[in-house]
Amino acid sequence: MTCLLLAAGVAMAYATFIENDFGAAFARATIYEATWFEIILVLLGINLTGRIFEKKLYKKEKLTIFVFHFAIIIMLIGAAITRYISYEGMMHIREGNESNIIETS
């Protein structure tokens, strides 16, 4: 688990520097949309789920630790949904006007 957290942290830190030098699109393409980065995030989710059951964090005495671990799992699921189901675009709206058109790449 520590190795996965360290790998994810280093990758995201590196992506921050890439984004600063080359732009957000390049950082997204080289780090965030890479298969190896997705594998790291999936393994983190699997490890967190395993720790919940291994340490029986779902019991009342360990509720705060359970909520912390479960929240991270929910964030990973939300990131996966956003990654695979959503789309990006721009909507130009002038003041006082309405629009229902989105421009996407």
How would you describe this protein?
It is a single chain. The chain is mostly helical. It has four helices and no strands. The protein has helices at residues 2-22, 24-32, 35-54, 63-85. Helix 1 (2-22) packs antiparallel against helix 2 and helix 3 (35-54) runs antiparallel to helix 4 (63-85). The longest helix has 23 residues, at 63-85. The protein is extended and about 55 Å long. 1% of the residues are buried.
Determine the number of helices (DSSP H or I, runs of at least 4 residues).
Answer: 4
Number of E strands? 0
What Rg do the Cα atoms give? 18 Å
The percent of residues in helical segments reads 55-70%
Report the structural category: mainly alpha
Q: What percent strand?
A: under 5%
**Rough shape?**
extended
The span between the termini is 37 Å
Poorly predicted ranges: none
Order of helices and strands: HHHH
Question: Which sheet architecture does the biggest sheet show?
Answer: none
Mean pLDDT: 92
What secondary-structure arrangement, pairings included, does this model have?
Elements: H1 2-22, H2 24-32, H3 35-54, H4 63-85
Helix pairs in contact: 1-2, 1-3, 3-4
Structural key phrases:
105 residues; mainly alpha; 70% helix
Quickly describe the structure.
The protein is 70% helix and 0% strand.
